[in-house]
From TrEMBL:
<dbReference type="GO" id="GO:0003723">
    <property type="term" value="F:RNA binding"/>
</dbReference>
<feature type="region of interest" description="Disordered">
    <location>
        <begin position="138"/>
        <end position="185"/>
    </location>
</feature>
<dbReference type="GO" id="GO:0006353">
    <property type="term" value="P:DNA-templated transcription termination"/>
</dbReference>
<dbReference type="InterPro" id="IPR035926">
    <property type="entry name" value="NusB-like_sf"/>
</dbReference>
<comment type="similarity">
    <text>Belongs to the NusB family.</text>
</comment>
<feature type="domain" description="NusB/RsmB/TIM44">
    <location>
        <begin position="5"/>
        <end position="128"/>
    </location>
</feature>
<keyword id="KW-0694">RNA-binding</keyword>
<dbReference type="InterPro" id="IPR006027">
    <property type="entry name" value="NusB_RsmB_TIM44"/>
</dbReference>
<dbReference type="GO" id="GO:0031564">
    <property type="term" value="P:transcription antitermination"/>
</dbReference>
<keyword id="KW-0805">Transcription regulation</keyword>
<comment type="function">
    <text>Involved in transcription antitermination. Required for transcription of ribosomal RNA (rRNA) genes. Binds specifically to the boxA antiterminator sequence of the ribosomal RNA (rrn) operons.</text>
</comment>
<keyword id="KW-0804">Transcription</keyword>
<feature type="compositionally biased region" description="Acidic residues">
    <location>
        <begin position="141"/>
        <end position="155"/>
    </location>
</feature>
<keyword id="KW-0889">Transcription antitermination</keyword>
<dbReference type="GO" id="GO:0005829">
    <property type="term" value="C:cytosol"/>
</dbReference>
<dbReference type="InterPro" id="IPR011605">
    <property type="entry name" value="NusB_fam"/>
</dbReference>
<dbReference type="Pfam" id="PF01029">
    <property type="entry name" value="NusB"/>
</dbReference>
Length: 185
């Protein structure tokens, strides 16, 4: 089964657990034991859910660190779980190139989230990749940001909408530019 399909199935599992306030691993075990009307979860979907569960605190801390004005707890449920999958792939799965993780996240966001989400997700994941590739520069930026007033509860124009309920959007949403492949040192 294609990894894109596995990502979608992992997202469904993470989303459902998040909405139910259930642990990711307990719902995953339920889905493995009793898949219901769906086909069994692909191995890569299981790997994603377990990886997100195992590294959840680090993933959410990374997202909080690089998000401007939007903490994970305030993001739309679908957006935060798309981001969790992508950050797990970027930081903890060496088999997936960063660009592929971003592209796959954008694909999910274009079909499952609102019109503003792909740009928000792209910007946030690009910042995560930059910090991964340039840890010294990223640490300096975090220090500079810590000197500014706390913006935990003040959303800015780059954040997602307040609605956690999403309707399916057509895949023909405005195109989002591809991540830059510049390697500025």
């Amino acid at each position: 089964m294609a990894r894109s399909t596995a990502r979608k199935r992992a997202l469904n599992t993470l989303y459902e657990a998040d909405e139910k306030s259930q642990s990711f691993t307990s719902l995953l075990e339920e889905r493995i034991k009793e898949p219901g009307a769906q086909t069994p979860l692909p191995e890569y979907a299981i790997e994603i859910v377990r990886g997100v569960a195992e590294h959840g605190r680090d993933i959410d801390a990374t997202l909080d660190e690089h998000s401007t004005g939007w903490k994970v707890r305030r993001m739309a449920v679908v957006d935060r779980n798309i981001l969790r999958i992508a950050v797990w792939e970027i930081l903890f799965n060496e088999e997936v190139p960063d660009k592929v993780a971003i592209d796959e996240a954008l694909s999910l966001a274009k079909t499952l989230s609102d019109d503003d989400s792909p740009a928000f997700i792209h910007g946030l994941l690009s910042a995560v990749c930059h910090a991964k590739d340039h840890p010294v520069a990223a640490a300096e930026n975090v220090d500079d940001a810590s000197d500014s007033p706390d913006a935990d509860d003040a959303p800015d124009a780059s954040g997602p909408s307040d609605s956690d309920e999403r309707t399916d959007q057509s895949a023909s949403a405005d195109p989002v530019s591809e991540p830059s492949e510049e390697t500025a040192d």
